[in-house]
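Tutorial, part two.
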Amino acid sequence: MTPEQHQDAAQTVLQAEQTGQQCGLLSLAYPGMTLDDAYAVQQALIRKKLASGRRKIGWKIGLTSRAMQQALNITTPDSGVLLDDMAFENGSTVPAGRFIQPRVEAEIAFIMKSPLAGVDCTREDVLAATDHVAPSLEILDTRILRADPATGQARIITDTISDNAANAGVVLGAERHAVDAHDLRWVGAIATCNGTVEETGLGAGVLNDPVTSVLWLARRMAEYGQQIEAGDIVLSGSFIRPIECPPGTEIAADFGSFGSVSINFA
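Running the prediction step on this input gives:
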């Protein structure tokens, strides 16, 4: 893809978000699209949003579970950018029409106290750079169709990355913990939808350790001249399947002694 095509693709995704009308698969429109192209589209999309007054508040890491990687026939996670208009208060209600096809995942969030990046970054560096961890929910949305209606082809990793890794919102629980206060591999959540248990999972579902997920992000970002900044929220990846959230949905995640978090959809 050319730089002009990166810009055109980013504008297509942005228009889909603004109008609430999903666009076609970029992987079909640009069949030779690579992962580098997809991240270039994502960066162009984020630059457009920053130019309109948005502010970066962190990063999300996706596709960290073996099940999701196998479903997309990949062996690596992906990442996207969190912006200030994506932050929702714990227990608040998302206005009707805000998203196209919202889904929610339960995750462990890292809040950073110092910058982190570099191909030589270590697990110890991640722990030292983390201010605290917290229970969280990530809201996903799909500005690009999940499947092409004509061919039935499903969206692939380049579509997801271009779509800012399906990133749409973040909800942090009130609790804050030192990064070494819990064995994050054993931090789990019971996620309910309208009072019914939908999903359960453990932190180990995220690359066997959520810390490993943040380490992957720090190393990947070095390849693109980026870094995690002090104050950033980093969503380390979901350990449950995404829960569909049509209007009227109430989602709550009980992390036990780690805390709780919830969000509603009008």
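The CA atoms of residues 22 and 214 lie 30 Å apart. In part three we will examine how such features are distributed along the chain.
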